[in-house]
Design goal:
Layout lengths: L3 H13 L10 E2 L10 H10 L7 E2 H8 L20 E6 L2 E6 L2 H4 E4 L2 E4 L16 H14 L1 H17 L13 H10 L43 E3 L1 H5 L10 H18 L13 H14 L1 H4 L8 E4 H4 L4 H8 L2 H8 L9 E3 L4 E3 L21 H5 L7 E3 L7 E2 L4 E2 L2 E2 L8 E2 L18 H11 L3
Antiparallel strand pairs: 1-8, 2-4, 3-4, 5-6, 7-9, 8-10, 11-14, 11-15, 12-13
Length: about 450
């Protein structure tokens, strides 16, 4: 029997052909055809669809949380009074409140909900998300008082309690999406998606954090995710949330038929415009510096090179991309799965490094780097001012519109609840390209980035 290591080596060899890429040169990612659809239908399916077909009873939700103070989506009907990141679905005749994609891919910024902005308020620390103790209590209560509602919720409860203990991050504000995906596939058959209460493959001990990239960047990209290993049909990756409650691939096929509409909607999203006056003369100077020092990798305007940057060049925290090599069972699972089959297949192609993203709307997408380790763009361009320990006010968040990022508070090794850049996966090292610029040059580049 082949070990996971040997299977992973075979996957990597065939992914790259007969030779591995040069570790000292950026690698362009080729484009692949993507499905098109109806953007209006895609929006409706995104905010009201049943791609996650499970949750907790609507009555329990209302009793626990009450009516939301501000209805950002104005959905009406059963979703009236339900927060934007949940959707009411029907299972066995019962109305359940299911988490939707906006849990991670929309954020309240100022007084508005920005669709497609990565949600940096989520709290996966101390098992806050999918709290297994609370879910178990809810299950017992439903089983005793509302058996029909319990039966409708049972699948969601079983899966959530199984994966919840794996999702504990070291700090609030980072995302455990990779860990959630790994935990879900570790319990599912790749071909049938049938759930197993016991793990079918080993899960590593570490939870590697990530920031959530903005959805409005997707239309420029030839690969998904920070390491650019999501290739082929983007729709197959977008529908991965369906793994939370899916019962079989027939249900997945139903979601798949509508996911091209969602992609069409995402392709209409645009970055928010900087809301304050911009120093035009300074921005023009910054544009020249940006084009000389940054555009080769990050692009400019409609020109975006889709370059994978080797670890030897970017030097940022290696844990996220390294996990694909240290735990190749998950790459193998996906590339043997239903997602990699049919007329619109997708596949995972690991790489030792990260993709340089487009910078549309970068001014408002703090924190920065793939793990959210740097609170401001000022810190991205000047590694000397990056805090080793920092936090921000999640209850009354303040944005620094000059340094471009969150107003933060520095701490030390004894600070509780602070982002600790010494931890594995949380490093703020790398991307030292701005260090060679002068202070005035960096200030000009920041002013220019406000225009994107």
């Amino acid at each position: 029997m082949k070990s996971w290591w040997s299977i992973g080596a075979i996957v990597l060899l065939f992914s790259f052909g007969n030779s591995l890429p040069d570790p000292e040169k950026p690698v362009p990612v080729p484009a692949t055809p993507q499905r098109t659809g109806d953007a209006v239908k895609g929006y409706q399916y995104l905010v009201s669809g049943d791609y996650v077909k499970g949750g907790l009873p609507l009555s329990l939700y209302k009793r626990a949380l009450g009516k939301q103070q501000k209805d950002f989506l104005n959905r009406g009907g059963l979703n009236s009074g339900v927060t934007h990141d949940f959707t009411v679905v029907e299972v066995n005749g019962e109305q359940l409140v299911a988490p939707n994609c906006l849990q991670c891919h929309a954020q309240v910024f100022g007084d508005s909900l920005v669709m497609g902005m990565g949600n940096t308020y989520l709290d996966f620390s101390a098992n806050q998300t999918m709290n297994t103790k609370n879910l178990a209590m809810a299950g017992k209560l439903l089983k005793l008082t509302a058996p029909a509602k319990y039966e409708a919720s049972k699948n969601f409860l079983r899966v959530s309690m199984a994966v919840g203990p794996y999702l504990n991050t070291a700090v609030r504000g980072v995302n455990a999406a990779d860990r959630l995906a790994a935990a879900l596939v570790a319990h599912r058959d790749p071909v049938t998606f049938q759930w197993s209460d016991t793990l079918l493959m080993p899960l590593p001990d570490e939870v590697i954090p990530s920031d959530v990239p903005a959805w409005w960047l997707l239309k420029k990209k030839n690969a998904m995710f920070y390491n650019g290993f999501g290739r082929g049909d983007f729709g197959r990756f977008l529908m991965a949330s369906n793994l939370l409650t899916v019962t079989d691939t027939a249900e997945s096929a139903e979601v798949d038929r509508q996911i091209s509409d969602v992609l069409a909607y995402l392709n209409t999203l645009k970055a928010p415009a900087y809301p304050f006056p911009i120093d035009k003369e300074l921005a023009e100077k910054g544009a020249l510096i940006y084009n000389d020092h940054c555009a080769k990798c990050h692009g400019n305007g409609d020109a975006y090179p889709n370059l994978l940057v080797p670890a030897a060049i970017i030097n940022t925290d290696t844990a996220l991309y390294s996990a694909n090599y240290q735990n190749p069972q998950f790459v193998d699972w996906f590339n043997r799965s239903w997602f990699a089959s049919g007329d619109h297949p997708a596949k995972l192609v690991p790489y030792q490094g990260y993709i340089a993203p487009p910078l549309d709307g970068v001014w408002c997408t703090a924190p920065y780097l793939h793990n959210g380790s740097v609170p401001t763009i000022e810190g991205v361009l000047n590694s000397a001012v990056r805090p080793a320990f920092w936090t921000r006010d999640f209850n009354k968040p303040e944005y620094d519109y000059q340094r471009l990022g969150w107003t933060y508070y520095s701490g030390d090794a004894n600070s509780v609840g602070y982002y600790d850049t010494r931890k594995k996966g949380y490093g703020n090292n790398g991307h030292y390209f701005g260090d060679k610029l002068t202070h005035s040059d960096r200030k000009a580049v920041i002013e220019y980035l406000k225009t994107l």
